[in-house]
Design brief:
The structure holds two protein chains of two kinds. Chain A is built from 16 helices and twelve strands. In chain A, helix 1 crosses helix 13 and helix 2 packs antiparallel against helix 15. The longest helix of chain A has 39 residues. The two termini of chain A are 30 Å apart. In chain B, strand 4 and strand 5 form a beta hairpin. Chain B has seven helices and ten strands. The longest helix of chain B has 16 residues. Chain B starts with a strand and ends in a 15-residue tail after the last strand. Classes of the chains: A alpha+beta, B alpha/beta.
Chain lengths: 457, 238
Amino acid sequence: MTRFMLLHDLRLALRSMRHTPVLTALTAGAIACGIAAAMIALTLYHARSGNPIWWKSDQLFAVTLDNRGPPGPQDQFQRHPEYPPFLVTYRDAKALSQSNIPTRSVMMYRSVGIIEPGKPGLKPFSASIRMTTADFFQMFDVPFLFGSGWTRSADDGPDPVIVLGRQLNDKLFAGANSVGKLVTLHGRQFRVVGVIDNWMPVPKFYDLPLNSFGVPEDLYMPFGWTTALQMPNAGIVSCVTPTAKVGSFNELLTQDCVWLEYWVEMPRVAQRQRFQTFVDNYVRDQKQYGRFVRPLNNRIVNVSTWLAMNDVIGEESRLQVALAGLFLAVCILNTLGLMLAKFLSGAPVTGLRRALGASRRDIVRQHLTEVVVVGIFGGLCGLLLSSLGLWAIRTLTYNSAFDNSAERLALAQALSHMDVTMLLLAALVSVVAGVLAGIYPAWRIGRMQPALFLKSQ
Amino acid sequence: MIELQDVGKAYRTDLVETHALRGVTLHLEPGEFVAITGPSGSGKTTLLNVLGLLEEASSGRYLLDGEDVSGLKDDRCSRIRNEKLGFVFQSFNLIPDFDIYDNVEVPLNYRGMPRAERHRRITAALERVGLGSRMKHVPAQLSGGQQQRVAIARALAGDPRVILADEPTGNLDTEMSGQIMDLLEEINAAGTTIVMVTHNPDLARRARRHIEITDGRVSERRRTGPQEPLAAAAPTAV
């Protein structure tokens, strides 16, 4: 098709749309509603389904061991009884950390503590803490605004060092470089060694069992302080054998109760095979002591598999997308009906064009062009509606009267933000919707016999 | 230049088969002015549609400028209609929301003609029919006779070999009918073949050749040579 014919078809399309403004508005409106519903559902799905560390997804692995008691009726209450527990016990984590096969490894959990700012006008307040070993920052490519994480030897000390999140640094030090400054936490002074820059992995892949879509912790502390200060667990504790119980901090460290997340970094394939063997051998060894009574079911899974195992995208999200798609289909059918009525009402003029030299192909192309233009126009309106819808969802669902911190707002934005991929998808869906809605009406009007309409116009 | 050899056209439904044309054999020379008359339902318009490649004959052969156009694909038929044929209809068939410039331009757009060439032809055609000063008028602003002249200009703009006119004066009064017939005679005198369907015997007499069609069969009523004067109507003011 020549450029001339394309411009000609475009001119005819715009002319036809101006000639029937109400019908054009109705058609574009129908497409806009369908596009809006589809794009809202897809945007929310897309935001949740991403892999926030995709560049290292095949190098990072979550380690899970099946230390559950014998199979029994309790299994039926688990969503995925075939999977081992997603957390590990303290003693298993300690044992795993003895292996030098992975390049890096981290054991961690979520805690909470009281910060005493020591500043006039700022009362002591509660802060969320990620208790972690030193490799956390390099493993997960955490960006630093100032300073860096602590060393492995600081874990052993444990050294009284912490890393602050940006928001906490803003609160305590007005955003200045606080490396070297002291923070009183749990009645003890800790030296700031680093401040993390804006960092919001969505989903929070390293903390899925607890909180798939949460904000990062306020600060980070060496794991060694867990026992030194008996730092409380603000996450999940699950005793997986019939006899295990947690009545004291010491039992938390010794019982078959899972509460720690364990991750390793293994860039090379050979490492993974060797580490799998190490883990399996460890479990076999523990069986001698009456632990790990089930068959071997140790899973060392990469990030993508981890996200799937945790059902980050639940069935309800998929259902929402399916329903939105169905709604779009209904809107397209609606548009198809409107365009068919419009094209057939213009049959006399179309018959005339055929008599004057337009081929069927010309007629079909001309009418398809009109529907695609309407589709694009409807798509633009749909994008506006989508933005409105996402703003409403953000405001009603994610924003909290109790926590309108910058990080929470940033998370709400991340979960309901239409990025470039979604904008391009919206454009594509608009064009495809136009084509689907117009292909039958255009074909139908192209098939009609021109002689039928010429005498009776 | 136009030759129909034993052409038939039948319309078939589940219950009925209607023969609109039966064994039509016709030979038209370049530059002829042919009038086709016949009672209602005799097949006049069907004959014109077959000649204009708007309908395909059910049987027989149709040769246009030596090319067998029977059974051609739609693209080729459309091209022939655009380049060799011009149409004038009883109800003018102008596009109401286009001005007359745009109306005349319609067939030229499908030829992919450059803008300058299109403008030249449109202007020349409208000047020829006496409407050069009304290019920006829409059809509703013109009289019936003027609208038909626009339709003739549209047919002429593509420089066709044949103009097919289906009751061109059917919606016009006597005075305007005369004007249109004068115009068609002028066009024919310049070398364009005209095939005109009409109910009006007076108008039929103005053509050089008169063919009658009854129940789908044609018969020659009258044929005058190219040198013989046409039967003249009463002179009318333009």
